[in-house]
Amino acid sequence: MTSDSRVPQTMRGDGRHPRIGASCAYRVVPVQRRGRETVAGILAAAREISRTVYAGDLLMKDVAEQSGLADGAVYRYFRNDDALRRALAAQALELYCDAMTALIAQGTCARWQDVVLLHITLRVDSYCRGEGPAAIPDRLRAEANESQVIAEFLGGVIRARDVDLQVPADLDHRIELSVRISDALVIHAFSTRPSQRRIVLAECRSVVEQILAR
């Protein structure tokens, strides 16, 4: 099963995702293989719909139609539309961490700052695939402390790569600030004309480089 359709493996038994810290409100947490595959299919359909529809407008009935399931099959696992959106937000963070780990494993990071700059690359790639931040409602992004979660993840990766690597004492703060600013600038880049996009993204990298070098 591909990562795009995978249900998060770190989901706790009470239906709360540890990286988000917000209840996904599962009616039934899938344990058996068939149930996990059903939920994976539901989330895959939700992700596909969110490419063209803002996730805040994502409805369970549309997801059921997209996945080829009866409405009741979706309601078996999710209490309501908002519960499904929460699960989608949880999976989006999980997929982000997987993708970032794969990029870092390619060994292209000569400096700890390069790990943070990869975040911009990943965000741009996501936008090009139609999977930008609009795939998660702003309210859930804030509730999930997404920037903080990503900053903690990247900080952990940096520290784990080389315990002797010289990093600033305020590493986590710099990373979180970089993530917030870069996300805002990437969003701005993709809201401008294509001819201006490269200029904005170059400015984005320049600003982040300055933050990381302070």
UniProtKB/TrEMBL annotation:
Pfam families named among the record's database cross-references: TetR_N (PF00440)
Domain HTH tetR-type: 36-96
PROSITE patterns: HTH_TETR_2 (PS50977)
DNA-binding region: 59-78
Keywords of this entry: DNA-binding
Keyword Nucleotide-binding: no
Highest taxon listed in the record's lineage: Bacteria
Keyword DNA-binding among record annotations: yes
InterPro entries linked: Homeodomain-like_sf, HTH_TetR
Name of the featured protein: HTH tetR-type domain-containing protein
